[in-house]
Amino acid sequence: MDVLIVEDNADLGQLWLNHLTRLGHRVTLVDSADAAIEMLGDDGADVIIADLDLPGSAAASVADYAAYRLPEARVIFVTASTFFSDGSAFALAANACACLPSRTAPDDLAAVVEYHGPRAAKGA
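Structure (tokenized):
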């Protein structure tokens, strides 16, 4: 499964990348919306993990681009903020399938990726 991580905290992004790679996923880590959109245009992804705490509306921009270019791709938002605890993150993107705290354990994040990823591949 192809996974794109959009995270500007290099240590956190690398932790997730290493864990998902060990599970056999092809993972790309970028730190900005521009890099994510370029990667999605070139290679695509089944699952996108996007940090809602990126500057501006970067995560929403990536999700919007994916909804247009790769409508089957699933977006998992992560955030350190409690602002989105009311579920409002799902209003940002039609392709959002989860919103998790940034402190979510890598095993748990991987479980969410593995649950939603096959649905992206099937277009369900």
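The two ends are 15 Å apart (CA to CA). Residues 72 and 119 are 8 Å apart (CA to CA).
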